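Example A, followed by Example B.
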Amino acid sequence: MPPTIETVQSWQGRTMVGPDGAKLGTIDAIYLDDETGQPEWALVNTGLFGTKSSFVPLAQAQDLGDSVQVPYDKQLVKDAPRVDTDQHLSEAEEQQLWRHYGLDYQAADTDTDRDGVYDDVQDTAVGRDTSGPTTDDAMTRSEEELRVGTQTRERGRARLRKYVTTEEQQVTVPVRREEVRVEREPITDANLDAATSGPDISEEEHEVTLREEEVVVDKRAVPKERVRLDTETVTDERQVAEEVRKEQIQVEGDQDQLRRQDQR
């Protein structure tokens, strides 16, 4: 059994969820059948910031307390045919909606004597101040306002990668070596004893060891600096342009009489 008018009175503004509990959107208005007075459709605001609206059947809706559950998933609701909520639902539009949700159009009709056309459902919308039996003698003029916000998304990634390169370095290093130098000194009284200590005539051989320095190369890793990634927030300004609708009220009738009433 579809929900009663008493049940749906509090549904406006509630969250509508699918069979898995995922949020479908927020119920903006409930629409009644003109002939039966029973709830048939919910207008649900979907999309980012509720910028889109979809009609959802209420025949199988269940009250969960803080939300209303229907047996339709999020994608099915978002893909529902777009119908101008300020206009009458034609027979073709109604059939299109029923087919989209996999419902039989004739079976969805009530037992009352109807001609198959879904009459202006907005005339009896609960919570909508339009000319109908549920409203008073005043008319409310409404207009759309842009609601613009931001959401965070990933714009890219940065990473640090360390790799090894090879380069050639030239270093000049002084090296020392020993060379043989012949020194001759004359015989004097000071060195006479040393000079005549051996045989008068003989053969001798003296050996001198020569040394030199050679270049020794060694390498070691030396830490030079620390590098890390960090982020900073930069604020830009972007302009958003979108069309908004607003209602205008036109007065028809005896203009002179209406003007005199305004002057009072």
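Example B, a separate protein, is given below in the same form.
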Amino acid sequence: MSTAREAILEGVRKGRRVAQPSSYVLPGWSGDARALFLVKARASAAEVHEIATLEGAPAAIWAILNAANATPRLHIPADSPLNELPWQRAPGLTLSHEAPSGSDSAVSRADCGIAETGTLVFLSGARTPSSWHFLPGSEIVLLQRDAILPRLEDVFARLGQIMPATVNLVTGPSRTADIEQTIERGAHGPRDVHILVVG
């Protein structure tokens, strides 16, 4: 005599189906992903700058802060590989390892860029805390040109089975129109986003 539990489990077993793999295939991409990324990122109100090498980043960042009359202090996570850049090329700039506030500037490095939307992709990790993308008033982001991919699906294809705890997608400065339908910047993150495309 079967119990109610066994009857339920038997019903579940009979109702199971083997999942079929998706037959959807992304259409080919024939455009220039790097050029499209620049257009889309600028359209999202991000400031986009192009630099030749990663070593040129400190001087470029120093110029950005000077042009904005910003405090000459830049926040970088203590374990970030960005600490190894030649910061001596930006005399007068102070580096801080404290978490930034809404009036501070911080620098980070994006893992990928998405050409279709001008979006930056940040993968969380021990040396790349996710919270730093929401704290500063101004975020300066380094992005390697060869890390710009056509679509979000291409990013996940590159990741494969190894997924980080968090994937942050950032498209331009933080904005909201919740208050009287007026666009306000900096509601949930940086008011300003500067992207340095390297290479």
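On Example B: The first strand starts at residue 47 and ends at 51.
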